[in-house]
Amino acid sequence: MAGTHQLATLQLAIMQVLWRSKEATVAEVREALAGDRDLAHTTIATMLVKLERKGVVDHRAEGRAYIYRALIEPQQVKSTMVTDLVERLFGGNLTAMMTHLLDESDVTREELSRLKALISRKEKETHDDV
Amino acid sequence: MAGTHQLATLQLAIMQVLWRSKEATVAEVREALAGDRDLAHTTIATMLVKLERKGVVDHRAEGRAYIYRALIEPQQVKSTMVTDLVERLFGGNLTAMMTHLLDESDVTREELSRLKALISRKEKETHDDV
DNA sequence: TGACACCTTCTACCGGAGTAGTAGAATTAA
DNA sequence: TTAATTCTACTACTCCGGTAGAAGGTGTCA
User: Stated in angstroms, how far is B29 CA from C9 C1'?
Assistant: First the structure.
């Protein structure tokens, strides 16, 4: 099971900053998160160390500062976390998850037709290659 | 924010047993979980105490044993957890979540048409009552 | 009535997330 | 040169999930 990465809330928030800006120092991450969450400089730094130990970010020194960058793609994290939730909540049943999403949230007409188009496109792509 | 319940993996697994069987003793929960997870009796018992403290289960004594039952509905938990993930991962954008699901998982033809039917049904339900 | 089996309760421990203070190095300003 | 600023490194602490041993209560049955 390589490349599966569960990330907690703050960790994910930090990663999202890195994904957006390619690279960032502790101060820059902190700046980007300010407003939603006002955290101490050291808190961000600590989290980045933990993320690095986890192998999902990397850093290089530039002068006195460390510049961090993400080592994994948003897609990997999303896949892991969504798949995991579908597994835990719906026993891996994708349609059940979709049904829930459609039932519980108020989707607009426009979104519905966009989804329909998406499915049609997907149907064309899906050859009988199972 | 009442009625929002985040549950971790084991907690959710235990709740699912309770939802299926309406009521269960510690031993029964343990039995139901055996195979996937072989846990000590006391582990389940401890988790149930924690879940009770959290207000999501309840118990009554019958003879020497406690019989537990769920106090919340599966739907409440699913809503909370799905909504939360969509928020954290896709900034609350439902369509983005759906797109991801369609792109990343290998959906079969059959599932696709079932989804299409689902959307059509939803479209009929959705009056312009926004 | 004593031995055993079954149950809950209490307590404890580990690890990870989150939060941050403090120390010490380095760079800049005065 | 000294003082202030700005970083990282180290440490620690709380909370929670998960896991389970030890202890103590209670029922059963020969």
Answer: 19
Instruction: Supply the ipTM of this predicted assembly.
Output: 0.89
- DSSP tag of B105: S
Scanning the structure block, which residue is given the tokens 């160390």? A49
Residue B130: per-residue pLDDT? 45
Stretch B34-47: mean pLDDT: 96
Are residue A49 and residue A91 in the same domain, yes or no? Answer: no
Residue A111: the pLDDT is: 87
A38, A86: one domain:
no
Q: List, for residues B46-59, the tens digit of each pLDDT value.
A: 999 999 999 999 99
In whole angstroms, give the CA distance from residue B19 to residue A60: 51
Q: Would you say residue A80 lies in a domain?
A: yes
Residues A25 and A66 in one domain: yes
CA atoms within 13 Å, Cβ hemisphere of A88: 21
The pLDDT of residue A127: 66
Q: Does A75 touch chain B (CB under 8 A)?
A: yes
Is the alpha carbon torsion for B13, B81, A36, A21 positive or negative? positive
pLDDT-derived band of residue A130, with 50, 70 and 90 as boundaries?
very low
CB contact under 8 A, B97 and A82: yes
Residue nearest to nucleotide C17 (CA to C1'): A8
The domain tally of chain A equals: 2
Strand C, nucleotides < 7 Å from a protein CB: these are: 6-12, 16-22, 26-28
